[in-house]
Each structure stands twice: as C-alpha cells, then as structure tokens.
Amino acid sequence: MSLPIREGRDLLTPRPLFVERSVNPHAQGSAHLKMGRTEILATVSLEDRFAPHMRGKKEGWLTAEYAMLPRATSDRQPRERNLQNGRRHEIQRLMGRALRSCVDLRHFRGQTVYVDCDVLVADGGTRVASILAGYAALHDFSDRLILSGRLAEWPLTQAVGAISVGLVGTELRVDLDYAEDKVARADLNVVATETGQLIEVQGGAEGAPISVGEYMQLVELGVSAVQSLMTDFQRQL
C-alpha cells in the first residue's frame, strides 16, 4: 500500500494554522480558524439561564455544539437535524470537556456559555480544529468582557489545544489530513494544555491492535505537538 504524501511538511509538523478573531458582529465572541484545508467558524454566546444540574452551584456552565455544513465535504451531506446523531454528540462532549477545563465558570454563576462550532470545510481533524477554534472564540469573548467592564478578572485559566496523531504504516504522524486518516492503523485526538498537561485522549487502533508502547508514543507525541502548536497559535490571538 502506498502511503499518503504530505504537501510541504514532514511527518511531525502540523498543517499551517491561521486564526482570525471577531469575525461575527452578532456573537459575544467568535473566531474563524483554518488548519490546512479544514475550516471552522466558532461563536460564543452567554445566556442568563443555566442547566438544571447546576442548581445551587457556585459556578455557571459551558456547553458546546458541533455541526458540519452540507458542502463541508466532497459530497453534499444532509443537514444534521437528527439530535440523536452519535458522532456529533461524541464530538460535542469532547469539546465541552476540553473547553470547560480552561474557563473559571465561577464568573458566570446562573449563566450558560455556549460555544458553537460549524465545519465550513472538512479535510480531517475537524474535532481538534473545533477545540482550537472554540478556545480562540473564548479568548475573543473574554477580551470583550474585560474591555466592556462586565468582568474585572480574566476568566480563562489556561491555554488549551488539541491535535491528531496517528500510525500510518510504521510511521508516526502529526495532524492527519483526510487521506492519512483513512489509512491510519491507529489515530488519537490528544487534548492538552500549553504547559504539557494532558486533558483527554480519544481514539484507538483501526483493525489490528497496537502495542501499549505504540499507544504511549502517540500520546507523548500528541502532548508535545500541542505545546509546539500553541506557541504560534497564541501569538495569533
């Protein structure tokens, strides 16, 4: 089997990453992110209502929603109107856990922070790109709250990023595009902080199992790649 060829990058280099903040004039925070050919639009909304399970708590809540537009892929996909879509729910839960880890929700008692991510163009890595776009939109949201005087203290507690890593043949690769993801023996989505602390790992082997050593290599590679990625990413914010 011939392995997918990377365009202008080595096996351990992520795709070019570009982010622009404040792209939606109506949202309280927003960002447009490009990661290679994958594009995400993220918005943040703050509403004066809260989840029932947060009653009596001293903090607010953050929830995330994810959707893929009909022509985000090479074939038109129907709009995801089915609320029971398993893949979408899995991605939303991952995004929510990742983004809640970086927000001090005590600033939003009795309120809910909504992070909405829409995939404009998909070429692999849409869930990790959505986490990055969501973090960028939260950064924009936080700036606006501070500048408007609605908050006196910065609500983000740490910088959070994510990256995909995989085994393609015998090769360890960082930030898989769609062609690589299709043939990977294993692929993981690694969520971590800029200081190298692990938040979550999602994924596993495709078909035949991999060794514990290979799995740990992928995790360590992912954490290191997130740290490297966040250096440039933070500069763009």
From TrEMBL:
Biological role: Phosphorolytic 3'-5' exoribonuclease that plays an important role in tRNA 3'-end maturation. Removes nucleotide residues following the 3'-CCA terminus of tRNAs; can also add nucleotides to the ends of RNA molecules by using nucleoside diphosphates as substrates, but this may not be physiologically important. Probably plays a role in initiation of 16S rRNA degradation (leading to ribosome degradation) during starvation.
Keyword tRNA-binding: yes
InterPro entries: ExoRNase_PH_dom1 (IPR001247), ExoRNase_PH_dom2 (IPR015847), ExoRNase_PH_dom2_sf (IPR036345), PNPase/RNase_PH_dom_sf (IPR027408), Ribosomal_Su5_D2-typ_SF (IPR020568), RNase_PH (IPR050080), RNase_PH_bac-type (IPR002381), RNase_PH_CS (IPR018336)
Exoribonuclease phosphorolytic domain location: 15-141, 160-224
EC number: 2.7.7.56
SUPFAM superfamilies assigned: Ribonuclease PH domain 2-like, Ribosomal protein S5 domain 2-like
Record note on quaternary structure: Homohexameric ring arranged as a trimer of dimers.
Keywords from the named record: Nucleotidyltransferase, RNA-binding, rRNA processing, Transferase, tRNA processing, tRNA-binding
Residues at which phosphate binds: R87, G125, T126, R127
Reactions mediated catalytically: tRNA(n+1) + phosphate = tRNA(n) + a ribonucleoside 5'-diphosphate
Organism: Deinococcus lacus
Keyword tRNA-binding: yes
PROSITE patterns listed in its UniProt record: RIBONUCLEASE_PH
Major enzyme class: transferase
Single GO MF annotation: tRNA nucleotidyltransferase activity
Protein family: Belongs to the RNase PH family.
Protein name: Ribonuclease PH
